[in-house]
Amino acid sequence: MAGPSVLVAVCTYQRAQQLEDLLDSLIPAIAGHQARVLVIDNDSKPSSEDLVAAHAIRADYVHEPNPGIAQARNAAMSRMNEAEFIAFLDDDETVSPDWLARLLDCVEQFGTDVATGPVISLFPDGAPSWIVDGGFIQRSRMPSGTRLELAATNNVLMNVATLNRTGVTRFDVDFSRSGGSDSEFFWRLRRKGGTIGWADDAVVSEEVPLERLTFRWVFKRGVRGGNVFGRLMRREHGRIYVFLHGAALAGFGALRVLLAVVTGKGRRSKDFQWLTHGLGVAQAALGSVVYEYDRG
Question: CB 260: neighbour CB atoms within 10 A?
């Protein structure tokens, strides 16, 4: 096996079949690499233990019963010094066969501390055309090597030496119920000098369940993202500044959405994102937190 050592962390919660599909896809992706898979089970009981033990990939298993995605991620971070790099994936994804190779290529070729890549949304039969065609869920892509300010833990590789050097080694549990602990993590890392690069060929896919393909879900997800960003803005700016920033974005987005509806032109998904993001930022300025993962 060649190349640096990698710990691939997967946080899971009551998704047995999807977890098995992900582990299946990881077998060719880590072949030829010094890579180990670590599954962190965030269920109250070790419900995935037997599945992981029986799987051919021979992954390590950790049970983290304390509820919260940040708690599960921190259980993985406690093991990060076992490798030179730590990667994170979501348990409802599958990876391309060259996924890990392309992430490693990115950090080597572009000299970044972190590499992150695209997550392709796969829609089920019966998905509303306004969501699929409008681009309301599908994420943006860009040329490899593009520098970013933030990343997410749905497809990311991090240099452990950089994490130790900067002291950014834990996820903030205050963001567990709201989501966004990964955004907050990379926000801190960037302010400590860490660099993030885009690896457009390190492809991950996720199947989008029908229950997410609603106006309500898309609206709430957009507001929640803005709310997380607004909470981060509050660390550097006053409440009035953040509120005005959010109100301006929301007003601009609302106007653009109205024009798009009237004229039939414009990027409706992008305009809608301005609106929901701005509303979330303004809510954060007022001290409101949007909770998405409330398990107690």
Answer: 17
Sign of the torsion angle spanned by Cα atoms 253, 255, 261, 265: negative
pLDDT of residue 131 exceeding 90, the answer is no
pLDDT higher at 126 or 104: 104
* Alpha-carbon torsion (116, 135, 14, 186), positive or negative: positive
Longest dimension (CA), the chain: 59
Torsion 121-123-128-129 (CA) sign: positive
Q: What is the pLDDT of residue 295?
A: 60
Instruction: Classify 112 as helix, strand or coil.
Output: coil
pLDDT higher than threshold 80 for residue 114: yes
Angle of helix 99-110 relative to helix 16-30, nearest 10 degrees, comes to: 60
Stretch 4-26: mean pLDDT, rounded?
Answer: 98
Token couple for 107: 């950090």
CB atoms within 10 A of CB 170: 15
For the chain, domains (ranges, CATH) are 2-212 (3.90.550.10), 215-285 (no CATH)
Share of residues in the chain with pLDDT > 90 (%): 84
- Sequence letter at residue 242: V
Structure-model confidence comparison of residues 146 and 270, the more confident one? 146
Look over the chain and give the mean of its residue pLDDT values, rounded to a whole number. Answer: 94
Show the beta-strand stretches assigned E in the chain. 2-12, 33-41, 60-63, 85-90, 93-95, 114-116, 119-122, 147-148, 155-159, 196-198, 204-207
- Report the side by side order of strands in the sheet with 196-198: 60-63, 33-41, 2-12, 85-90, 155-159, 114-116, 196-198, 147-148
CA 90, CA 109: separation in Å to the nearest integer?
25
pTM assigned to the model: 0.93
Residue 209 has pLDDT above 80, yes or no: yes
Residue 24's identity, in one-letter code, is D
- Give me 109's structure tokens: 């070729």
